[in-house]
């Protein structure tokens, strides 16, 4: 925590110590809400439009009527960064359905809770990018929200938390979820890519796979660079036999994976494609967030 930490809560900017949410808030009671995590470089959020598009679409899918327009949300995020005087930051935008009497039924007159919170960005150790990280795959762990056609960043992250604990306990960076049939889905907070014979592959977006913003940007870069790419389901054995593998999300950008379930990937070092994609991504970020 910094000396100065200002958050936006329900129409007002205030010190984080003064920000309070009701014990009857459905985000607290039921995990009834969603969030979006963004990364600011030089005080500007990279691909803010894509983040807000996903955030607003997810809100509509869970019948949460957002009290602010996208332009207003953009200004809230920008002002939160400025008021904290952050240049390199992580910004989390959280919306819940608001406070209500106990019960699962959604009331029509609820006033949503909206919170914007920024914190200084803490980079991963450089050796993670130089040497790669290890992951585990977990059978029958793929998470979906019943009644939704796609994956969203729900406020109920208990499954992800337990899987991350499992990975941490084994000294691994992340856990990769698998469906009952062994199909690879995603990490606890990341999308996964593999490379085989020069072809880049990642699972297609589904109710088990989030439409990651960094994932989308990587696919754009691959297309621009003429890299063959397939949105294709694969198994954990395909990860073991891949030439390269990497994770993507807003905070880690592109992170090489050198080992999965004690199986070395490729020669055990970050490969040429992941290095190239990461270089292009960082150049793109620098160009858009000057």
Q: How do the strands and helices of this protein lay out in sequence?
A:
Elements lengths: L5 E4 L2 E4 L10 H5 L2 E9 L2 E2 L2 H14 L8 H15 L4 E8 L16 E8 L5 H6 L1 E6 L19 H12 L4 E5 L5 E4 L3 E6 L2 E4 L10 H12 L4 E3 L4 H5 L3 E6 L3 E8 L2 E2 L7 H17 L2
Parallel strand pairs: 7-8, 7-14, 11-12
Antiparallel strand pairs: 1-2, 1-6, 3-4, 3-5, 5-6, 8-9, 10-11, 10-13, 13-14, 14-15
Question: What can be said about this structure in brief?
Answer:
With 290 residues, this protein is an alpha+beta fold. 30% of the residues lie in helices and 27% in strands. The chain has helices spanning 26-30, 48-61, 70-84, 126-131, 158-169, 213-224, 236-240, 272-288; strands spanning 6-9, 12-15, 33-41, 44-45, 89-96, 113-120, 133-138, 174-178, 184-187, 191-196, 199-202, 229-231, 244-249, 253-260, 263-264.
Q: Would you kindly provide a written description of the structure presented here, covering whatever features stand out?
A:
It is a single chain. The chain folds into two domains: 6-120, Aminotransferase class 4, branched-chain amino acid transferase, N-terminal domain (D-amino Acid Aminotransferase, Chain A, domain 1, 2-Layer Sandwich); 126-288, D-amino Acid Aminotransferase, subunit A, domain 2 (D-amino Acid Aminotransferase, Chain A, domain 2, Alpha-Beta Barrel), CATH 3.20.10. Strand 14 (253-260) and strand 15 (263-264) form a beta hairpin. The longest helix has 17 residues, at 272-288. It has helices spanning 26-30, 48-61, 70-84, 126-131, 158-169, 213-224, 236-240, 272-288, and strands at residues 6-9, 12-15, 33-41, 44-45, 89-96, 113-120, 133-138, 174-178, 184-187, 191-196, 199-202, 229-231, 244-249, 253-260, 263-264. The chain has eight helices and 15 strands. The radius of gyration is 19 Å and the shape is globular. The chain is α+β, with helices and mostly antiparallel strands. The strands form two sheets. Strands 7, 8, 9, 10, 11, 12, 13, 14 and 15 form a nine-stranded mixed sheet that branches.
